[in-house]
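Hi everyone, sorry if this is the wrong subforum. Our group has a chain we'd like a structural model of before ordering constructs, and none of us has done structure prediction before. Sequence below.
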Amino acid sequence: MSSQTLDAAFIAQQKARLVELRRQLVSVGNAAGSDEQAWQTAAGGEPQDEGDDGERFAQQEVDEAVLKHSEDRVAAVDRALEKIEEGTYGLSDESDEPIPRARLEAVPETIYTVEESEARERNARRGL
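Answer:
Right subforum, don't worry. Here is the predicted structure as tokens:
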């Protein structure tokens, strides 16, 4: 199933989905950054008690995780949009194997087959 077997209407629909997903992810990332700025501004130069610091640090960790996740997904969305322009959308970046249409419908920014994604996640957990 190369991008040639994915019909033009499907690819156009996926492109629209990817553009909207990118907009949403950027918005979420911006909100997480704004939360961090608000915490820093609120803290100002005033002394904080341990409870305030603990809450602020916990929220900072959440915001950083959200921001990292959003940044990673934006990069994947950008790559998927590049693949649409290249005419390779629907083919794995790793093996050039076709990515099933159902997977593309479920995860439009995917650039790997399920098996490749799982292997990459396992290797990442092992630090490889």
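For your construct planning: The chain has one domain: 8-126. The chain has a mean pLDDT of 84.
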